Amino acid sequence: MSTDTSSALVSSEWLAQHLTDPTIKILDCTWHHPSTNLDGRTQYRGRHLPGSVHFDIDQVADKSNPLPHMLPTAEDFAHKVGLLGISNSDRVIVYDRHYGGSAAARVWWMFRVFGHDNVALLDGGFGKWTKEKRPAEMTPVRPAPASFTANVQPGLVATLADVQRLAQSGAQLVDARGPGKFDGTQADVFAFKRQGHIPGAINLPWADLVDPDTGVLLSPDALTARVTAAGINLGKTIVTTCASGITSCMLALALYQLGAPTTAVYDGSWAEWSQLDDTAVAA
What we know:
The structure is a single chain. By secondary structure, this protein is an alpha/beta fold. The protein folds into two domains: 9-152, 3-Layer(aba) Sandwich (Oxidized Rhodanese, domain 1), CATH 3.40.250.10; 155-273, Rhodanese-like domain (Oxidized Rhodanese, domain 1). The protein has helices spanning 12-17, 40-46, 74-83, 102-113, 125-131, 160-169, 179-182, 220-229, 247-257, 269-273; strands spanning 9-10, 24-28, 53-54, 91-95, 119-122, 157-158, 172-175, 202-203, 238-241, 264-266. Helix 4 links the parallel strand 4 and strand 5 (119-122). This is Sulfurtransferase. It comes from Bradyrhizobium denitrificans.
């Protein structure tokens, strides 16, 4: 797993051995909803992996769109990633402080959307790294700018129109939210206009794919068992969705590990679907 660039994961052991490799670029992708009063950039300044720079999904985003952290243009992504010192020849490693690493998984997906497949998530994230007493530092990293060229892969992104077609055709739309939010009985941190889910969606909570003790992704066999139990066919088209396009990327990453690399993510997710007057809602 560690040296295979077709894997979406690297282990803490592997990364510890490659910290000084100049072609390895590490991104601290810690993100919190504003309601938590926590700030990923502040936490980065407090402590981060050696050599890592902070990646903010709310800043590397389409700021003109009222929906949360929607994908930026290819030009904007390339510009901002270049300022972080990343070139197309680098191996990008992403992590965050959340159990499972869902914000980092979104950044993993973003890089793939813009044509950079040489990206992997640190399995277990910052939590596992620090529990193992591996090195961390406080000094912010100011990288020298690099040149990055984006090459958009539209098949990895699902739009509202795409999802509407899928919902009508009975294709596989998989919702990564917990069961309470999926069935509308539990409010979300986002002030959604309506609660529930897209009709026909399958519920596969992203947290069910992560080891509750270590935060690492479950083994392929355990992942396969959960995917099969949910009734998902890996050989057919899959689009993942969630609240705002973050945990759906964790689901896409898990499916990638199981041999479904073309899984698309509905970028607008429930944040978009729930606010429209002409979209059906199931509970």
